[in-house]
Amino acid sequence: MSDCASRLDPSLHDRINAMTSRLLHERDGLADLIASISQGLLDDDRSENRTQLDEIENVIRALRDEHFMERAAHLRSYIGLDTAAPQGRLEAVAKRLVDQAPDAVSLTVPQIAAVFTAHPTFALADGVYEILTQRAENPEQPVPCLKTHRRPAPPTLAQEQALALAAILRGRDALDDLTEALLQEMSQRWSDEGSQVDPSPVILASWVGFDTDGRNDIGWWDTLRIRLELKSSQLHRLTDGLERLGLQDSALAMRARRAIEAVKTQHAACPTGKDAAPEIIKDFAQTLIACRDKALLDATELLPLFQDAAVELDDEARLHLRTIRAGFMNHGLGIARIHTRLNAAQIYNVARTRLGLTDDPALPSRRRVLLAKIDEALSDLKPRAVDFGSLLVEPASAARLMMTMAQILKHIDSGSPIRFLIAETESGYTLLATLWLARLFGIKDHQIEISPLFETESALENGETILEEAFRSSHWRDYLRANGRLSLQFGYSDSGRYVGQLAATNLVERLRMRTLSLLAEHGLEDVSLTLFDTHGESIGRGAHPFSLRQRLDYFSPARTRLAMREAGIGCRVETAFQGGDGYTLFGTKALAASTIATLAEHVADIPLDTKDPVYTRPDFASDFFSTIALDMGALVDDPGYAALLSAFGPALIDKTGSRPSARQSDAATVTRITHPGQLRAIPNNAILQQLGWWANVLHGLGNAAQRHPETFEQFATESSRFREAMDFARQALAHSDLDVLRTTIHQLDPGTWLDRAAKARSDEERQSLLCISHGLELLRFWANGPAMFRRIQADHIALRAAWPDAPRMDAREKLLHAIRFALIDRLWTLSTRIPYFGPRNSLTREAITNLILCLDVPRALHLLEDLFPISAPSVANLDFGEPGDAAEAAGFAREHEEIFAPLSRCFALLREVGVAIMHANRAFG
């Protein structure tokens, strides 16, 4: 395997240094460099060798690989692998946990969970992720010279599930190492007292294949099939462990193998594909039920067999068996616990159809009526029997999902509770309606953990009211007591893009403190809390940029943890590992062990009351974060901001998940958005990353800082909590550049191209530039963009005044942006050379040109290949019944060679630049 770093051509190295020097030292360095690269690419047309594009391609790859290796080094340091061996950390934290525990049983309560999600961050080819994690584990690992780091195609749901499972299995291996260390420490402290205790301070969960929010491509049988696969993985893990101990012939191993065979039969009968005939569903139902007992229904059924298997073992083997038992019992009949998710609107729909509750819960005037009616429905409820016929005919998606959960609990695993996450929760009615639906389908209160997701500004602002509305119902309070915990989820991608990341975290912390008060007010101090932070790996989605330890501390600050300890309320923290980026923290055995060690260390770190100024001076903190939220809200509503996100939009990035980011069509119609809410959160953040301006982290910060500049400086020095927030700004500023954003605005301005047309050296060049200007005039991205830019610029000037030594974008990252601007110039110029053709239905040459102006090059090329086939069909051997020599059997090979192929190549390089920028930012979106 060759190492690209050692094979960099010295002349290429000199070229990169010369270009970065221009950016650093020339007054108009960015604009001049773009013009120089663009002219070089244009000159390629006059040369047969086309060396300029080849050289630019080599520059892109060199910069990409440089940032890739920096990303690998950052991943290594992020989880602490560069400072200590993971096994030593696991053993040390195990000792701390045992020393802190009042008794052995207390260690059976999970304190933190890693949740694997399938958020669309699968931006790299699977092999590139492997190289990244191997390099992170071993900095001496060579990095091969690859043509591209991009995925060959978007991942399917099955591929996402396979990647998640691989990460989970490495996580389980690391958990076993932690468990073994815990058991050794427990045996020394408590002797026989802890012999039947399965410690579980850290657990794993997954919602891959169970998240139906915003997607209709996951059928209920897909969910059941994936759940059976998780069960099969868990059982295979058990038998593999027993075989290593020589227990393959034990009653425990034989029972587990019988269960594996039964699950295999169930899985084989499960439908696949988009549709399933009733007969297939009937056969599956009968097979699932017939094999239910043989396949096991509760992990605890194996406890007596575990005890029997341990009788003849020596101490070392017994320790290994206890480790296996703990991992099995703590996760039930699945390799990880499961979360499901849907949208609150789906809950409202099923309540409307089944209960006739047609009022809008978003209207305060009607909410009280709805709350009274749903409370009455809970009082009068009579559970309904669910079978697979019910699932087959049920039209409401929320009802189908709840029925699916009921069937999992009845026929696959009755002993493991299921988390039921509800996106966009805006009312206590949502929680009560979900409880009604669960009870309607026979799900017991201890089997389902209903969790609102607070992710919008209104939900975070009014979260206390939302919870209070539910708490007033005796049914909800009874549910909480029976379940034993209140589960809450906090979303950072959506909340951050609407109010700014810094303000969003402040709102989340405030809501957590208010939740403690609510539990006390309603006499629910014996109910534990689960606080699930759903974030990504980037600052745009809430992750602290410098270390996993700081990330956990940022989400669960000392103040809230101390408040919970003082109130005597148990709390489990859950943290997300989203998609391809998140799985890298579990990418190898060493990485997974370091990550698990960090999670366990967070549990063991008892917070101290620091008297942080953020809390002792709440007036400044409130004004500071409120100012950010107000300014970010104003930017989000600015039509120029929507135009900026929409101009190039998702065309800057590859599709990175199995869920669509926007609707696609085969027509030559430009997809426009009028508000950021029409984009999904992750593509929204990824576009900002690619545009070179982290608006959702930075905007409003300047205005907030200039209101109290001296206090801002004091807090930045004296408040650890405030510095954590400023770390996000540091990272954002290190990867944001106002000149880059300004160039995007200029590039979309028709006047820029008119100015260039006025200076054109030939009629052909002039007409090409005028054509681009005309297309941009029609698209009207320019109408509101300059005013929006001035809004951002004014805030940034204020920030630089308050924070003079704030970081700036590195010149080598800025060079990537310069190259991409030049590639866009080239793409747009090539688009003006597309041959004219008569309109075909609604398809015109202008429409295709507009697609390319918006960088939707793949769709444009797809249409062009139909319009201009590279070769005519062969008819030489066909007899048409009469003589004929009128046709000239010529295709459009010249157009393909001179226009379409260069379009395709330049666009591929543009996307490769996007990958390099992503590496520089260390995460997608």
Provide a descriptive summary of the structure in words:
- The protein is mainly α and 925 residues long.
- The chain contains 41 helices and eight strands.
- Strand 4, helix 16 and strand 5 form a beta-alpha-beta unit.
- Helix 1 crosses helix 38 and helix 13 runs parallel beside helix 16.
- About 1% of the residues have low confidence.
Task: Break the fold down into its secondary structure elements and pairings.
Elements: H1 10-25, H2 29-43, H3 51-78, H4 86-100, E1 112-117, H5 126-137, H6 157-190, E2 202-206, H7 220-244, H8 251-269, H9 278-290, H10 303-310, H11 315-331, E3 337-343, H12 344-355, H13 364-379, H14 388-393, H15 397-411, E4 418-423, H16 428-440, E5 448-454, H17 457-461, H18 463-471, H19 474-483, E6 485-491, H20 493-499, H21 501-521, E7 528-534, H22 548-555, H23 558-567, E8 571-578, H24 579-583, H25 589-604, H26 613-616, H27 618-636, H28 639-647, H29 681-691, H30 695-698, H31 701-707, H32 709-718, H33 720-733, H34 738-747, H35 750-758, H36 763-779, H37 785-802, H38 811-831, H39 845-853, H40 857-867, H41 893-921
